[in-house]
Write a structure and sequence with these properties.
Helix content of chain A: 25-40%
CATH topology of one domain in chain B: MetI-like fold
CATH architecture of one domain in chain B: Orthogonal Bundle
Structural class of chain B: mainly alpha
Number of helices of chain A: 16
Distance between the termini of chain A: 32 Å
Oligomer: heterodimer
Strand content of chain A: 15-25%
């Protein structure tokens, strides 16, 4: 996952998860007949040097760390608010939005044998999430104090009214609890426990052999005594594109998540006896395929030109041909699978090259020599095969309406520098992640006035005071329904302005041996704790 | 005399090391410096976002807030104290990271070279013993066909054939994960993992040695000293081995030295295909993550390996051909 910008995902809310629930074969709890023991070897393509999920909320980190270090709650298809309790057993927000009370699980011990208590939660929140969390810093900025009246109660106090809905949606990804006794009084960013993790989870960290594998072993003292089922999880580093599929077929690994088996190989792999393909289990981690537009460029500052670009793209074709059906078309900044926040009354822009041509004519850019109206630099993000392929498609789609786009290819660091620091582009292909609540990492795509260098954010000069006001207002609104209303207005406005062009929403594929049970049984499965996963008897 | 010559050779080589290292460091540094984006950009892509203050703190911590010149000077002065610096991509000292990878690469390169050299020379002798024969033409053609294959493609085909279709050999890795094996069992396990990568890397280069050996021998058959030996009644294997092969070996050994650098390049691809944690793959990761100290560490170590191989080649040369070095005063 070195190549993908990514991050935490969200807890789906209740209504949203019903959609997910209908789509899958459900395994009732307690689970089917999985046996105790066995080693699960999975494909990994990145080795984050800092594995601390309280600092770095990213898929690459969670893939390993979520088995060792636990959040307060995890995403769930069926539970209330879409959340299953982990280190917290219940939570209650105050009416004024100034405090949130967590009741913590009792009888939990750290992997080094020390008892877990509310002091660990208070320390993690104030010293780690708020100060060092790459996304936690924004969400917990107004967290003033955490009171610990007893060992299993933590009361979060906020300086300003804070939506409990936002904090709830942030629980699975942004509340990993780390042990106070190992971090207190140390340089947190350089603490050796960031590599040799110590947590409360079902698996303990055993070893990391750089370039080879990371190994986790069963925690015999896990608070849920019936779990985990597996003895070991081994993450084998497989840098080659073809390696995961080959290793699965050779039965050297039993699972490949995050589309480590490329979509192009899926037809073949699906036919191999003993292998099973899962397309669910990622509802909580939606990636959005978008076209970023540099509003500083004269032609692109005209909304008619931006609308023309939106009309020039055949979204159905993109989903069918590039994503092979494993995606959905998109018209706005909140994905359809978020049934709470997704605005259904945003019409968007259908595929209509004729209308696009008309808009460009109206804007005063007639076709010139060779039928070309103007030229653009197109920078497709190199993160996924699909982003590169869509870049090629976009070039053709724009050529059909008289816009000549030149593709500029960069590797990952060069792309980030060009787009988010140097702003040296006209349009790009990008993949921001929707993390379950628009306030976590979506409004930053539209908010104005950010300093250059902040990645995956509005570096393209979009500026609408109305939108800025909506973002600010929603951030301080504690009523759930009112927040939803404000974010609906926000979606309508940015889509109307074509701040950027939303094209599709996609997630990933998991391929696993069919004797591995309880795979993809929650909306963040790949980055959840796998405590109930095991081999069939 | 014979004892002093290798020493003099080594002394000369060691003096030559300094400018080579300086060039390697300067070149690698300039190359990575000219690539847009730095280690923080690469890091941010992997973590999915962060704010400006965090990024500034990270740049300061990794010394990236300084210009290229101060950073280069700092690197050189640390290097003078044999400190290779800190790898941002792995979060540990560069020396630890590269030393852990070195044995795997040496093993892969060494075995692949051995395979290419021995099999190539052997087949070359078979061809060169009777140039122009059917045997010569068939073997030469087969070798050229192998040489024309890209190593990674050969590797993928071998994986499909011997790991996926028939589960004879592992598809990747250097040894079985956390196997607990020790001693000879572990060596055998590593050996099994190395069969396919060594074949992929070695077979491609084998053709080179075959051609050199064959062509060298073909030329030697017409030489006066060979004809004289024949006239003395020498024939068969003795003639081939003592007079023809020994002389034809010289260009082969020369190629061995030159080839060590190319082999290191080829190992980048083979190590990726077979998921072997070696120096080649490490170099490409260092570039992708703009980890300058790590790349420099890999380059320095690689340069050292190549120079060591060439030193050994020179020594072998002196043994094979007593004329070498005698005229130049050592």
């Amino acid at each position: 996952m070195t190549q993908m910008p990514e991050g935490p995902m969200n807890a789906p809310t209740r209504r949203r998860l019903l959609a997910g629930a209908a789509a899958l074969p459900f395994l009732p709890r307690p689970a089917l007949a999985q046996k105790r023991g066995g080693r699960l070897t999975v494909a990994a393509d990145s080795e984050p040097p800092n594995l601390n999920p309280a600092i770095i909320a990213s898929n690459g980190v969670f893939f390993v760390a979520s088995k060792v270090i636990e959040p307060l709650a995890e995403a769930d298809y069926r539970a209330k608010d879409g959340l299953a309790p982990r280190l917290a057993t219940s939570w209650e927000g105050a009416a004024d939005g100034r405090s949130l009370t967590f009741t913590l699980r009792q009888g939990v011990t750290w992997h080094d044998g020390k008892p877990f208590s509310s002091a660990d939660v208070a320390f993690s929140a104030l010293e780690v999430w708020k100060k060092h969390g790459n996304l936690g810093r924004a969400v917990f900025r107004e967290l003033e104090a955490v009171e610990t009246p007893d060992a299993n109660t933590a009361i979060f106090r906020f300086a300003v009214p804070t939506p409990a809905q936002l904090i709830r949606n942030a629980l699975p990804a942004l509340t990993a609890v780390v042990p106070k006794h190992l971090y207190e009084g140390t340089d947190i960013m350089r603490n050796p426990a960031n590599q040799k993790l110590v947590g409360t989870g079902p698996f303990r960290f055993a070893e990391w052999r750089p370039g080879e594998y990371t190994r986790l072993v069963r925690n015999p003292a896990y608070w849920d005594q019936a779990r985990p089922f597996l003895n070991e999880i081994v993450y084998r580093v497989l840098p080659d594109r073809a390696a995961a599929a080959n290793a699965l077929e050779a039965e050297e690994i039993q699972l490949a998540a995050f589309s480590a088996v490329p979509l192009a190989d899926l037809d073949r792999i699906a036919k191999v006896p003993g292998l099973k393909v899962y397309s669910n289990g990622y509802e909580g981690l939606t990636y959005q395929l978008v076209v970023e537009i540099n509003h500083r460029r004269k032609e692109l500052s005209d909304v008619r030109v931006r609308r023309a670009i939106a009309h020039a793209i055949d979204r159905d074709f993109v989903v069918r041909a590039i994503f092979r059906g494993f995606a959905a078309t998109s018209q706005g900044p909140v994905p359809k699978n978020d049934r709470v926040f997704h605005a259904t009354d945003v019409a968007g822009y259908g595929f209509n090259p004729q209308r696009a041509n008309q808009l460009l004519d109206e804007a005063g850019y007639p076709r010139g020599e060779g039928g070309i109206r103007f030229r653009l630099r197109l920078l497709p993000a190199p993160f996924f095969n699909e982003t590169r392929q869509f870049g090629d498609y976009l070039r053709q789609a724009l050529a059909a309406v008289g816009i000549d786009a030149t593709i500029v290819s960069n590797d990952t660091p060069a792309h980030l520098r060009a787009v988010y620091t140097d702003r040296a582009f006209d349009i790009t292909v990008a993949t921001p992640v929707y993390r379950g609540d628009p306030a976590i990492s979506t409004t930053i795509l539209f908010q104005s006035g950010l300093p250059a260098g902040v990645p995956f954010a509005n570096q393209y000069g979009y500026e609408n005071p109305e939108v800025d006001a909506l973002i600010k207002q929603a951030a301080a609104t504690i009523d759930d329904a009112e927040r939803v209303r404000l974010y609906n207005a926000f979606q309508k406005q940015v889509t109307d302005d074509v701040a950027l062009v939303n094209v599709a929403e996609f997630s990933f594929i998991t391929v696993a041996r069919d004797n591995l049970l309880n795979v993809s049984n929650n909306p963040r499965w790949a980055v959840s704790n796998w405590a109930d996963t095991g081999f069939a008897d | 005399m014979a004892g002093r010559r290798p020493l003099a050779l080594m002394r000369r080589r060691l003096i030559g090391v300094v400018p080579v290292f300086a060039l390697v460091v300067l070149g690698a540094f300039a190359l990575l410096e000219s690539a847009p984006g730095d280690a923080v950009d690469a890091y941010l892509a992997g973590i999915g976002g962060g704010d400006a203050a965090q990024m500034a703190a990270l740049r300061a911590e990794w010394g990236l807030d300084q210009g290229p010149l101060p950073r280069f000077l700092a690197y050189i002065s640390a290097l003078a104290r044999l400190d290779l610096g800190w790898s941002t991509a792995f979060g540990r000292p560069v020396l630890d990271v590269v030393l852990a990878r070195l044995p795997n690469t040496l093993l892969l390169m060494g075995l692949a070279t051995l395979l290419a050299l021995s099999l190539g020379s052997l087949l070359g002798i078979l061809c060169g013993a009777r140039p122009g024969s059917l045997q010569d033409r068939t073997l030469s053609l087969a070798a050229i066909a192998l040489y024309a294959m890209p190593g990674f493609w050969l590797g993928l085909v071998l994986i499909v054939a011997f790991s996926v279709e028939r589960r004879w050999l592992p598809s990747g890795g250097i040894e079985t994960v956390a196997s607990g094996l020790t001693g000879w069992d572990r060596a055998a396990d590593i050996g099994r993992h190395l069969v396919l990568p060594v074949l992929s890397l070695g077979l491609v280069y084998m053709a080179l040695y075959l051609r050199l050996m064959r062509d060298g021998m073909a030329e030697l058959w017409a030489q006066d000293f060979v004809r004289a030996a024949r006239a003395r009644g020498m024939h068969g294997a003795r003639l081939v081995l003592r007079h023809v092969v020994r002389n034809a070996l010289l260009p082969v050994v020369t190629m061995l030295g030159l080839q060590s650098a190319a082999m290191l390049g080829g190992s980048v691809v083979i190590e990726s295909v077979f998921a072997i944690p070696g120096l080649g793959r490490l170099a490409s990761e260092a570039v992708a993550r703009r980890d300058t100290p790590l790349l420099l560490g890999v380059m320095l170590l690689s340069a050292m390996v190549v120079m060591l191989v060439n030193l050994l080649v020179d020594l072998a040369y002196a043994l094979l051909d007593p004329r070498v070095g005698s005229g130049t005063g050592g």
